[in-house]
Amino acid sequence: MNTQLSFPANPPALRGAQTGATLIVGLVLLLVLTVVGVSGMNMATMEITMAANTQFQQDAFQAAEDAIDIVIGQRVYSTDVPRTVAFLGDPNYDRSAVTTFRTTTNAFGNSLDYAAFHFDIQAVGRGPRNASSQHNQSFYVVGRAL
Q1: Are 143 and 114 contacting, i.e. CB atoms less than 8 angstroms apart?
Q2: Model pTM?
Q3: Nearest Cα to 59, choosing from 132, 137, 123, 134?
Q4: Alpha carbons 80 and 88: distance in angstroms, whole number
Q5: Distance between CA atoms of 120 and 77, rounded to whole angstroms?
Q6: Biggest alpha carbon distance in the chain?
Q7: Cβ neighbours of residue 84 under 8 Å, at least 6 residues apart?
Q8: Burial state string for 82-100 with b = 16 or more CB within 10 A and e = fewer than 16
Q9: For the segment 22-78, what is each residue's pLDDT rounded down to a tens digit?
Q10: How far apart, in whole angstroms, are the C-alpha atoms of residue 60 and residue 63?
């Protein structure tokens, strides 16, 4: 005994009950997901920019430290005129330093043979996106008093 039942494709009772609520809910959910996605993209872009700016500031910091190292490494000091380590001319990664003589004090108590010559270094480092760093360092060199 083989019985076949046939059902209409759209039953007449359900045809009038469809008002499109599922479509509206689906579109609202898609809108919410789009806003969340765009917000996440903007936040990621801002975080990448912040990380790059931090790196550029560190580059400027290291350039200023490099200028101080150059001054101390060259060991050429003058008590007459300030000594300058000039900028290289690179707009993104550059450094400069000016060494200035400050004063002389006795190095070993009342010894008149040796003196401590005090110097100040003002160094400037530059990085990309106008990042800059300025360092001041003082040091002294012990030598024969003049």
Answers
A1: yes
A2: 0.68
A3: 132
A4: 25
A5: 11
A6: 129
A7: 96, 97, 98, 99
A8: ebebeeeeeeebbbbbbbb
A9: 899 999 999 999 999 999 999 999 999 999 999 999 999 999 999 999 999 888 888
A10: 5
